[in-house]
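Case 271 in the screening queue. Each case pairs one protein sequence with one candidate compound; here the compound is S-adenosylmethionine. For every case the pipeline is the same: read the inputs, emit a complex structure as tokens, and attach any notable structural observations.

Predict complex for case 271.
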Amino acid sequence: MSVLVASDAPNQAAGGVGLSGSATADRSPRGRSPLLWASLLQILHGGPDSQGTSQGNQSLSGPRVLDCGGGSGSLAVPLAAHGAVVTVVDVSIDALATLMRRAAEAGVSDRVTAVQGEAESLAELVPADTFDLVLAHDVLEDVQNPVQVMRQIAGALRPDGVLSVVVANPVAGVLARVLAGDVAGALSAYHRPAQQAYDAESLADLCVAAGLRVQSVEGLGVFTDLVPGIELDRPGAIAALSELESAVAGQPPYRDIASRLHVLAHRPGAG
Ligand SMILES: C[S@@+](CC[C@H](N)C(=O)[O-])C[C@H]1O[C@@H](n2cnc3c(N)ncnc32)[C@H](O)[C@@H]1O
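Case 271 output:
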């Protein structure tokens, strides 16, 4: 295992980045579900301004976030810009190099630590009982042993810390092929889902098996991929779509056809 630690880039974020205030309002990550981003910010806003330790940045204040399989930092960097102290674990050295370049460009190198390694060995890579929020977004499909990974994620959370897990929804893959006229492809996708495929129930079960308590199960992108792009140019269409997505995100059967499934779960507290 090799470990990369954030460089000695200038401390441009120190003292200036909080979790609230209009100055941070326009730093949402591009191409990300607004619903997902809003829910992560709500967790950070509601969480403690922890002084806990994290590799490479023990002296910084702010919520401790672990992004497991965080890749090139499309969420880690915006979260650091919102005042979090973020550790990203990923197998890809290239993705981590991009992460650190992005962090430097955003002026948050001191708030981001990159750790190369496998999620399956998480307990050896990051401290236990530490993180206020752990992300496992679009990575569970790639790991060899999701049950083991989820247990280690649970162990990295502090008591009452929150896990945010996102997976692709295989149902949406079948639906998208049908809507594109590729019925044979849809049939094939239906019969041969990815090796690690989840629905809302199995994803929630995975969290429970790791000792976590499920708070919510939502669909991200129930309708977004179904709307013809040109229709979104109409005045008010994006706002209406956003409101519709919000309204149905937690409601079966809408939730169950979303592009991705999002579960929030927390580690039970000591008391
Ligand atoms: C689809 S990308 C998702 C990146 C990021 N979580 C996001 O939502 O943008 C999957 C990431 O998981 C990483 N990955 C795959 N298998 C992994 C494993 N066993 N342990 C750690 N990272 C892994 C890949 O290198 C890649 O960066």
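Case 271 observations:
- Residues 1-28, 47-56 have pLDDT under 50 and may be disordered.
- Residues 69-71, 74, 89-92, 95, 118-120, 137-139, 142-143 surround S-adenosylmethionine (CB under 6 Å).
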